[in-house]
Amino acid sequence: MKTWVPDDRNFAYLNWKQVDALPRDRTLLVLPTAAIEQHGHHLPLATDTLINNLLLGHALQKLPADMPIYALPPVCYGKSNEHIGFPGTLAVTASTFMALLRDLGGSLSNAGFQKLVLYNTHGGNTALIDVMARDLRAEFGLRTFALHGSGGIAFEGLSPQERAYGFHAGEVETALLLASVPEMVDQLAYTVNYIADISNPELLLPENAPATFAWLTRDIASSGVMGDPRPATADNGARWIDQAATRLAAALEAMVRYANKRQA
Ligand SMILES: [Zn+2]
Fold first, then answer.
1. How far apart are CA 57 and CA 249, in angstroms?
2. Is pTM, for the whole model, over 0.90?
3. How far is the CA of 242 from the centre of ligand 1 (A)?
């Protein structure tokens, strides 16, 4: 898999004596979580994994050299059962995903590390990341954090419809890949599909509402796309990558500074 993570920020490139010399109380380890799943006719299966590595790698490149932050090898397989039925989707169950994160958290705790952030770029994992950040805190006493996607940047230039319902293989994901791995984007194979329409509000919505319906992609998007990739440009992608990396780097630095022991 391609990587934008600098070699000197890659935890797995250290030997155990170098790991042993890291300051246990301050070192922040980043566990990337993503997916290998269908992304329509025009983007690769590894889209979420590539975006994770791209944004995290650029964020790590922005950090001061003495900031003790290392990227762990990613958990590429995620809870992707919303995309079952499409060739190439490789999903793990919620229990498998959570068991793997628990075992990795246990290993880090055993080695005396105290700070772990789960950095996730696949929506299907989001609920499990929040569960595991709290469970790892409770079970092992790790100081855990959750970090998602682009770190909350505004994505200037997106239409309101795409902002609300560009869930999957739409403008943002396509632009990020056009800016970084354009050879993996088939610009002749774009399809457009929306799961809901902001101009026609309904009581039951797919996400972010008091009343939701649980969706499977095959029920509502035969091409696998939820969004509109057509307006995507490499220029917007490059700008969003830089903005996201700045936000993510600031969040990582705040996690290093966050006190391990806090008093009420
Ligand atoms: Zn995706």
1. 10
2. yes
3. 19
202 C-alpha vs ligand 1 centroid, how far in Å?
25
Tokens at 93, concatenated: 């169950």
What digits encode the pLDDT tens for the residues 97-133? 999 999 999 999 999 999 999 999 999 999 999 999 9
Query: How far does the centroid of ligand 1 lie from the alpha carbon of residue 99, in Å?
Result: 23
